[in-house]
Amino acid sequence: MTADYPGAARWVPTGAGLDELRRAARGCQGCPLYRNATQTVFSSGPPTARIVLVGEQPGDQEDRRGAPFVGPAGNILDRALEEVGIDRAAAYVTNAVKHFKFRQDGPGARRIHQTPDQREITACRPWLAAELAIVDPDIIVALGATAGRALFGPDFRVNRTRGALLPWPAPPHEDAVRVNKFFLATIHPSAVLRADDREAAYQGLVADLRLAAEVLG
């Protein structure tokens, strides 16, 4: 890590529970994204969750409200989870990167989402590793490429593994956060909003999440 990207490890308390992690994450300065974000957006869901859903980063609404997946993409995710019979309240929902990365062309202008780069993903990974160690889910779902890279490293591609229920970690990578569970990759719900054929994209997301629902029984 460089001086600008010291990484989150120094802010992650040893032996902490989720509530302590959430409190500690408020002060994280592991990468420069904390400077412009409104707040750290950590996670929602119980420590006993059998499924962990990992997204990319907070969006505009999430940054303002301090909770993951509460904007338009969150509405898509909620709808898809309900359709396959997964209770959102019983799931653990988090992001690979905990601060909103955006571009703003002048004061008062709309904040435009920017994809986190690998240094930012790597800097934030200790939080995700700590979360997974506590929750110990039956299945981990990566919602999009950034989540996959956080879990497996920079060579991860969603389309190589999408829609297949795989043992964790798969594919193996030296940077993988290792847990003996199942893994599933799918698109980020925001991809449905950007798709030319939204219904087809949504149905693909639902089909992928149905596999996760089967693991949960």
Automatic annotation (TrEMBL):
Q: Where is the Uracil-DNA glycosylase-like domain?
A: 42-210
**InterPro entries, per this entry?**
UDG_Type-4/5, Ura-DNA_glyco_family4, Uracil-DNA_glycosylase-like, Uracil-DNA_glycosylase-like_sf
Gene3D superfamilies, alphabetically? Uracil-DNA glycosylase-like domain
Asked if the record carries the keyword DNA repair, the reply is yes
User: Which residues fall in a coiled-coil region?
Assistant: none
* Keywords, sorted A to Z: 4Fe-4S, DNA damage, DNA repair, Hydrolase, Iron, Iron-sulfur, Metal-binding
Report the GO molecular function annotations.
4 iron, 4 sulfur cluster binding; deaminated base DNA N-glycosylase activity; metal ion binding
What SMART domains would the database entry show?
Answer: UDG, UreE_C
Q: What biological-process terms (Gene Ontology) are attached?
A: DNA repair
Q: Which Pfam families match?
A: UDG
Q: Which family does it belong to?
A: Belongs to the uracil-DNA glycosylase (UDG) superfamily. Type 4 (UDGa) family.
Return the PANTHER family for the record.
TYPE-4 URACIL-DNA GLYCOSYLASE, TYPE-5 URACIL-DNA GLYCOSYLASE
- Name the UniProt record assigns to this protein: Type-4 uracil-DNA glycosylase
Species, as recorded: Acidothermus cellulolyticus (strain ATCC 43068 / DSM 8971 / 11B)
